[in-house]
Specification:
The complex is a heterodimer of chains A (about 375) and B (about 110). Chain A has about 375 residues and is mainly α. Chain A is built from 14 helices and five strands. Chain B has one domain: Arc Repressor Mutant, subunit A. The chains are: A mainly alpha (about 375), B alpha+beta (about 110). At the A-B interface, helix 2 and helix 3 of A face helix 2, helix 3, strand 2 and strand 3 of B.
Chain lengths: ~375, ~110
């Protein structure tokens, strides 16, 4: 994105006025704001009465209208959107800024998921028409959540693929026409802290959900001894695994320098994938319970798996919390494989291109 | 691209010299004899369309008194379009003058 940040580095504009202008300019699409936000704020300040501390309705409402019209013009027509979301067809070059804004949106999976599910609409309609009983309804919801979790988990990969497909300049175009160009880039690695937090949430959902299912079974008087024995045994095994993992933390004590690496925050979608999958698993167990698994065997299995993983996940999470520099892949490699961190090398990738004032591409920071 | 009165005035303002947003607003006010006062949204709507049509382009920026001024200038295609539209308007004005000129009375009986 542009170096300008919507009127935050304009000493000649009253900060309160700049804030007010920024709020009105929200009507414009984000790429437009990044490109023109500062000069627009300056112009609004020039046009306003001297000493004005906010953009009034008289100046603001036309801005709102113009912004929405700009949004409508920047947004491709429906058939292009369908081609982009569902059929993975190339998007015409003039809509590249729209594609780029989409690829940079933190919550992109939320936009993708309805389209992906729409793809399955005929099948879904067929399934929904045949639903008999609460167990099947819960089962369908569980399957839908599995799809959502997969979509969230593939977030990073989907963004990369879409960038390859839609942002590179085509034949006969110059680099400035593209939203991105090929370059050797640092290897992106996801920070360990948020990832560990997501893992803890996943385990918490599994334990609470499966535990709840077993509590219902026990309240009905259908519980079997295995429902208590297996989870308890899993907890013991999990504790032993956690102790072994704790010893393997020494591999992370003296990490090598990583000049070829960039530590990034995981996208919200990536962090949601685990917990959503856990909810899907719990709903699946609920569906089986409603469908005749009276003794809660599937609930026992789920609780056993969750409790076996819980000690190592929780202790790793608490340990990682005090070490902000760690990346997830190093932690997994050390704890699971007993190997020191691998040195990452720069690799071929894409960097965004901003068309500068003279139309010359300038690499983004 | 269709040339509206506003975009014609902006083209005229840019024909003289490269100008920044506030400069265009002032020039348009002078050109239109204080009749057309462009708002910020309208101006950038017009500029977006001119840039998209390849008739105008950004030509550098500077910070004056802590405010960002980005300059815009006409491209060759913009100048041609402006000249062509001015010819059309001139021809239209000539026809209009013939139509609204005072005519000698015809066929009076008294």
């Amino acid at each position: 994105m542009s170096a300008h940040r919507d009127g935050q580095d304009l000493p000649g504009v009253d900060p309160a006025f700049a804030r007010s202008a920024r709020r009105w300019l929200l009507a414009y699409p984000p790429p437009w704001r990044a490109r023109r936000g500062d000069e627009m704020t300056s112009l609004l300040a020039d046009l306003a009465e001297p000493g004005a501390r906010r953009v009034g309705l008289r100046a603001g409402l036309p801005l709102l209208w113009s912004g929405l019209r700009t949004r409508r013009c920047a947004r491709p027509p429906l058939h292009v959107v369908v081609g982009y979301r569902v059929l993975e067809r190339p998007v015409p070059a003039r809509y590249r800024p729209w594609v780029r804004a989409d690829l940079e949106a933190p919550w992109r999976p939320l936009r993708e998921i309805p389209w992906r599910l729409a793809y399955l609409l005929p099948l879904a309609a067929f399934v929904l028409a045949g639903i008999e009983g609460a167990d099947e309804a819960v089962g369908v919801v569980a399957w839908a959540l599995v799809l959502v979790a997969i979509e969230c988990g593939l977030d990073t990969r989907r963004r990369q693929r879409a960038a390859e497909r839609h942002l590179l300049p085509g034949a006969g175009e110059t680099a400035a026409d593209g939203g991105a160009r090929r370059a050797v880039v640092l290897r992106d690695r996801v920070a360990a802290r948020p990832a560990a937090r997501a893992a803890v949430r996943t385990v918490a959902v599994l334990v609470a959900g499966a535990g709840g299912v077993l509590a219902v079974v026990a309240a009905r008087g259908d519980a079997e001894p295995a429902s208590a024995v297996a989870p308890a045994a899993a907890l013991v095994v999990g504790g032993a695994v956690a102790a072994a993992a704790r010893r393997r933390r020494r591999w992370l004590a003296d990490p090598p320098p990583q000049p070829g690496r960039r530590v990034v925050e995981a996208t919200p979608g990536l962090l949601l994938a685990g917990p959503v999958a856990a909810v899907a698993a719990v709903l699946g167990v609920v569906a089986l319970l409603l469908g005749g698994d009276v003794h809660g065997q599937w609930g026992t299995l789920l609780l056993t798996v969750a409790l076996a993983a819980a000690p190592v996940v929780v202790s790793t999470w608490r340990w990682v919390a005090g070490r902000p520099g760690l990346v997830a892949v190093d932690v997994v490699r050390a704890l699971a494989d007993g190997l020191p961190p691998a040195v990452d090398l720069p690799r071929p990738g894409l960097v965004p291109v901003d068309a500068g004032p003279a139309g010359r591409p300038t690499p983004s920071p | 691209m269709r040339i509206t009165e506003q975009s014609y005035l902006v083209l005229l303002a840019l024909a003289e010299e490269p100008r920044h947003g506030y400069g265009i607003v002032q020039a348009v006010r002078d050109l239109s004899d204080d009749e057309v006062r462009l708002g910020a949204g309208t101006l950038y709507g017009v500029l977006d369309r001119l840039v998209a049509a390849g008739w105008a382009e950004a030509s550098g920026e500077e910070v004056v008194d802590g405010r960002l001024r980005r300059y815009y200038r006409l491209t060759g295609a913009g100048r041609e379009a402006l000249a062509a539209h001015t010819d059309r308007l001139t021809a239209l004005a000539a026809r209009a003058r013939r139509l609204v000129a005072p005519r000698p009375a015809t066929g009076g009986a008294w």
